[in-house]
Specification:
single chain; alpha+beta; about 20% helix; 22 strands; rod-shaped
Length: about 350
């Protein structure tokens, strides 16, 4: 056994060596992968070199695994001394010497090009943007607005666009921090659009998470000529909502929604033009469902020279039979009476003028 005086001198020399080497025994904190020298004075069989695990544990003689990560060298000596005291050694004299400080690292995970550890350069610092650049930057499926930095028991989220703005204070990382880039929740999400659009089927949902009905229809190459934009339906979670594009164009669409643009119920519908018009016969009803008497006469080639504008009749079939309406179209042309709107199946008759 060494004398007490020799043990004290040895300990003092050890501390002096630490200070001269630039490592303060009371300030340097041990971390994963550090390599230390355990000296148990008077017990050479127990003294040895030990490398800490990634999580900061050291495997020591007799007492097994001991958590040293996060402790200073002096704190590590005190902890090991307490563990040996009594059960294993009567008066343990322990010193812990740092042989090799492992590289300080942060871990970058999640939606980046090359996830993995990033070394903090010696004698300098590492900020969040530099760490992300070191792993190739954000992956295409990243959610830039939600980058998490876990530091010990604390967690904070950052927006990549904001931290890269000129003049923004860098987010400095420290050893052991974990950077986790979330996956964009809209990646691989779709909506389905059916009916009277240029391209039916699934549409990729924008990664911005912003999509409205009008934009979705535009992505589907717009409405067909037979579409009825006033009766669009949206199915979401089993519920069906309906509305007109004219009033719901900015209504939000969510992933999984099914948009249906129906065919106009006026497709293949007609009115019949009879009598003194340029082109008697059937004219197609507009798909928007709006056709007034003056427009119908114009589509039929206008009035013939013998037309009696004052006694134009419109016949309409109803559940109660045939109803006949008579109009003075001259007054209608001059705005003296309101326009009369036709319905599919109406018959318009322009009689001959009698002299």
């Amino acid at each position: 056994m060494h004398s007490p005086t020799l043990r004290v001198l040895t300990a003092l020399c050890f501390l002096l060596a630490l200070i001269q080497g630039g490592i303060a025994a009371d300030t340097y904190l041990l971390k994963g992968n550090d390599k230390i020298r355990l000296n148990v004075f008077g017990e050479p069989d127990m003294s040895r070199e030990v490398q800490l695990t990634v999580t900061g544990e050291a495997s020591l003689p007799l007492i097994g695994s001991v958590k040293l990560g996060g402790l200073s060298l002096l704190e590590a000596e005190e902890k090991i001394t307490e563990l040996y005291l009594g059960d294993y050694l009567i008066s343990p004299q322990i010193s812990v010497n740092l042989l090799n400080a492992a590289d300080e690292r942060v871990m970058v995970m999640g939606a980046v090009v090359q996830p993995g550890p990033v070394t903090i350069p010696a004698n300098t610092s590492l900020d969040l943007v530099s760490a992300l650049n070191s792993v190739g930057g954000l992956a295409p499926h990243a959610y830039p607005e939600r980058i998490e930095v876990v530091s010990g028991d604390n967690s904070q989220f950052y927006d990549f666009e904001k931290v890269t703005l000129a003049g923004t204070t860098p987010v400095v990382l420290k050893h052991g921090d974990i950077v986790n880039v979330a996956t964009n929740p809209y990646v691989n999400k779709h909506i389905t659009i059916l009916g009277e659009v240029g391209m039916t089927g699934q549409l990729i949902f924008p990664r911005s998470g912003q999509l409205d009905i009008e934009t979705a229809i535009g992505m589907a190459r717009g409405l067909t000529e037979e579409a009825d934009p006033e009766r669009i339906t949206l199915k979401r979670n089993g519920k069906i909502y309906s509305g007109a594009l004219s009033t719901q164009s900015r209504a939000k669409v969510m992933p999984g929604d099914i948009l249906t643009v129906p065919k106009s119920r006026f497709v293949d519908k007609y009115v019949t033009m009879l009598g003194e018009v340029g082109k008697p016969g059937q004219i197609g009803f507009p798909v928007d469902g709006k056709l007034d008497l003056l427009t119908a006469i114009s589509l039929a080639g206008g009035f013939d020279r013998l037309a009696n504008k004052k006694k134009v009749t419109v016949s309409r079939q109803t559940s109660g039979g045939t109803q006949v309406y008579q109009f003075d179209v001259s007054d209608m042309e001059e705005g003296k009476i309101k326009l009369h709107y036709l319905m599919p199946g109406d018959s318009v008759n322009v009689p001959v003028r009698r002299f």
